[in-house]
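Q: Structure tokens for this one, please.
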Amino acid sequence: MNPKELKRFIYDGFSELNINLQQKQIERFYDYLKFLMAENKKYNLTSITDPKKISTLHFFDSAGLFLNNDIKGKVIDIGTGAGFPGFVLKIVRPDIAITLVESSLKKVKFLKMLQIELDLYDNIEVIHNRAESLGHDKNYRGRYDFVCSRAVAPLNILLEYTAPFCKKTGLILLYKGPAYKKELNGAQKAINLLNLRLKNIYKLDIPFLEKERELLAFERKDLLEDKYPRRPGIPKKTPL
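A: Here is the predicted structure, written as tokens:
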């Protein structure tokens, strides 16, 4: 696929999500794609190497957040990996303030190089840390309007990672596949202990994506106890 066709594919995919990209945004996504594919040969950032599949499984899927929510204010992406959904949200909505948290140093290095490549510096912060540690930092705890994650982790673990960052009036938005019902049943204890409430479940219609995609939205019922999140490694080793 030549550059013109690929840029058209990117534009069309976002259009189906009711996102009309400007030319500068299309160019940024194209540059993002090229840079990711080049650096992936060195760092193994994603197992997906086809440009159309990267656009679908990473760009369009990340932008699915916009289908049911007006993403604005302060946003934090936990376990952002190669910048999904965080960098995608920032390109689509330059006005949001976004924090990207990643525990893998090689991926953090990639993200910082990506900032240079895409010339994205305003209201965007890349942090090398674990969610369990950063969740106790007063500069980040309870500070965000939206907390999101596409991290591959069971729901009861992911909620402990993400809940500490959510404002009282904020939302936690988590991507899940067709097995979400089983995970949700197994996460009831975590939901109660973390003082959360399931607000909504959105079925996402992602362009060119055949598999099912759901977005689970949680809100705060009350303040989170200071002991959460537990120290690094414990949420995964001993889930709530």
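A few notes: The mean pLDDT is 95. The chain is about 40% helix and 20% strand.
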